[in-house]
Specification:
The complex is a heterotrimer, with two copies of chain A (207 residues) and one copy of chain B (236 residues).
Chain A (H helix, E strand, L loop, with lengths): L1 H5 L7 H14 L4 E2 H8 L3 H15 L6 E6 L2 E6 L4 H9 L8 H13 L2 E2 H8 L4 H9 L3 E6 L7 E5 L1 H6 L33 H4 L4
Antiparallel strand pairs in A: 1-3, 2-3, 4-6, 5-6
Helix pairs in contact in A: 2-4, 3-4, 6-8
Chain B lengths: L13 H11 L9 H17 L6 H18 L10 H24 L25 H17 L4 H9 L5 H15 L1 E3 H5 L5 H16 L3 E4 L6 E4 L6
Antiparallel strand pairs in B: 1-3, 2-3
Helix pairs in contact in B: 1-4, 2-3, 7-9
Classes of the chains: A alpha+beta (207), B mainly alpha (236).
Chain lengths: 207, 236, 207
């Protein structure tokens, strides 16, 4: 086994050479130059080209999970693009962790007050929200909605269609009425709903 | 007994050294001549010291143990009492098995396959979990109190530094109860929402503790969803 | 995309399902639990087992560059062991330095008694093992397995799927029977077949 690496292609069957090429291509996540394979296997590049063609014939069928691509003078195995969704589902679910409490709060503040600036959200929550807002945009729950015509022209944020889907809302008007607490924001739209006995006046505190 | 010259670095530990001595001297592991074994063991340790090498503490610990076993085995024993050497026998047998198992594993070790790094797929970050819309309401409620209590102090609040008003716990007990009489329950944070002064917040907190202790109110839930409820009167 | 994750295996041909499984295994690179594949494809784990067996039949030939391994309840693609040299040569991989005696001993104690604490390993070997355990974790041969509900809540360690691959085991049950007690070295060979009763409990110490 050892000697072969330094490269004498003779004495080794074509099938075995093709297997070696296949192993090399598989193990490398990146494209591998055919030259390089030829050098390692101790054969001509033309022979490697032939092997790659044969491998492509074997792999590149609609049902195959793996395809072999030629990229210039290199070859690379990759997932059959037709199956990208199940692959994502299998590998990506980690990314779909439930929203953190912080994310939920930011989402709520935006949902009930949109469009709003990040500064507004931060004022309500009293903490920096850049990271959370960014990740909610990435998750497709918030989106940019233009800029506020104020010094610095801060970005405005609102909720997305995907947000409505995740929270099973037909439209943004169907948000549950906001809690009255905190005293000042409730005018927005919430407390007009009758059943909410925690209306703003009830929370009025005597200091 | 045959003299042995080893380097301690060649041993995995005191048990390894002992096993070597046992093997070299064809000692019956179930009937260890403890005095002789101790003597040989100490010789090795001394050789190490002469060579001015650090002797790992484990080797010294084992020496102490051997001395103890030797002493104990000189004392008369009750019939049902265990031979003090048995513990050492047990340790040696166990370690012997460990070494044998390691040898077996070594024969299996191959390291002759290479795996592939995970393919770098463009990630799909779109959130897909389904939530109850009421969670938003809850979250908004939790968010609201926060800003009030965590925002930088308003200029007015600095006047307190000068006038340092002390807020009594009694007044805040009344405040908490009054709030709860009206509402039945309130988010924990909301209780503090309008209390800008530190002394007021402390007083509210102390009042709350007092009320919990006297079973007038109950605190439920955790973190930002924590609720304070009036006891004996559920919210209508 | 959503649908597949929640799983409707119906309406999709067996070949296509096998292709999806193949794609998932290929793209992951790491061992993937059959359960996980089943969940994503919306089929039973038994069906995935069948697919994996079929894929193994397709891949695990002497000439193939790629083999499919079962490692515990997971499957993983790797290179054909016969072609390790050309693969190393092409990818400039260093030869693995053989594991030290200390590392082998620690691995052996953990493999036969897992999950175990470091204290247990140290008791058997009579020496501190922190460094060795750490480096085995780093090499991906050992992994943490939660904590023991004892004062100090010590970490528990077990072997990984990578361990199985490196030691050519399909599952941890396939470890050779542990060397018997009473163990003059010679006895081991004998106890291999009949000595089933020298089970791991005999190495077990009370911690």
């Amino acid at each position: 086994m050892r000697g072969e690496a330094d490269g004498e292609g003779e004495g080794v069957s074509t099938e075995e050479l093709a297997g070696r090429a296949e192993a090399i291509l598989f193990a490398s996540g990146e494209p591998v130059a055919l030259d390089r394979i030829a050098q390692v296997l101790g054969v001509r590049t033309a022979a490697v080209e032939k092997m790659v063609l044969a491998l492509q014939e074997k792999y590149n069928t609609p049902q195959s999970g793996v395809h072999l691509l030629m990229l210039g003078d290199s070859a690379q195995f990759c997932t059959n693009p037709a199956f990208i969704e199940p692959v994502r589902a299998a590998l990506d679910l980690k990314r779909n962790t439930p929203l953190s409490q912080a994310a939920m709060e930011v989402l709520a503040v935006v949902a009930y007050n949109q469009p709003v600036t990040k500064a507004f959200v931060e004022q309500v929550r009293g903490v920096d929200c850049s990271g959370v807002v960014g990740s909610l945009v990435q998750k497709g729950l918030l989106e940019e909605r233009g800029r506020l015509e104020l010094p610095g022209r801060p970005l405005l944020y609102g909720t997305t269609e995907n947000f409505l889907r995740c929270f099973q809302l037909e439209s943004i008007d169907r948000l549950p009425p906001p809690p009255g607490e905190g005293g000042q924001q409730e005018q927005e739209e919430g407390s007009d709903d009758d059943g909410e006995d925690d209306g703003p006046e009830q929370i009025t505190l005597d200091v | 007994m045959e003299k042995l010259q080893y380097k301690l670095e060649n041993f995995e530990g005191p048990l390894d050294l002992l096993l070597t001595l046992v093997a070299k001297n064809k000692i019956d592991i179930y009937d260890i001549p403890i005095a002789e074994l101790l003597e040989q063991y100490m010789e090795q340790i001394d050789l190490m010291r002469e060579a001015d090498l650090d002797v790992a503490s484990e080797f010294l610990e084992m020496a102490a143990r051997l001395v103890y076993i030797k002493t104990a085995s000189l004392l008369p024993r009750q019939e049902d009492e265990e031979d003090p050497r048995m513990e050492l026998t047990g340790l040696l047998l166990e370690y012997q098995q460990c070494k044998a198992a390691a040898e077996k594993l070594r024969t299996l070790a191959a390291f002759n396959t290479v795996t592939r790094p995970p393919e770098e797929l463009p990630a799909d970050f779109i959130y897909k979990r389904i939530h109850d819309p009421r969670e938003l309401r809850q979250a908004l409620r939790a968010a609201w109190g926060k800003g009030k209590s965590l925002m930088p102090p308003k200029p007015e609040s600095f006047s307190a530094l000068v006038s340092a008003r002390i807020v009594s716990v009694a007044s805040q007990t009344v405040y908490v109860l009054r709030t709860l009489w009206k509402r039945g329950s309130i988010a924990y944070r909301a209780l503090f929402a309008e209390k800008d002064e530190r002394s007021a917040r402390i007083a509210v907190f102390l009042a709350l503790l007092e009320l919990v202790k006297n079973r007038r109110v109950r605190v439920e839930g955790e973190g930002d969803l924590c609720e304070v409820k009036l006891m004996g009167r559920e919210k209508a």
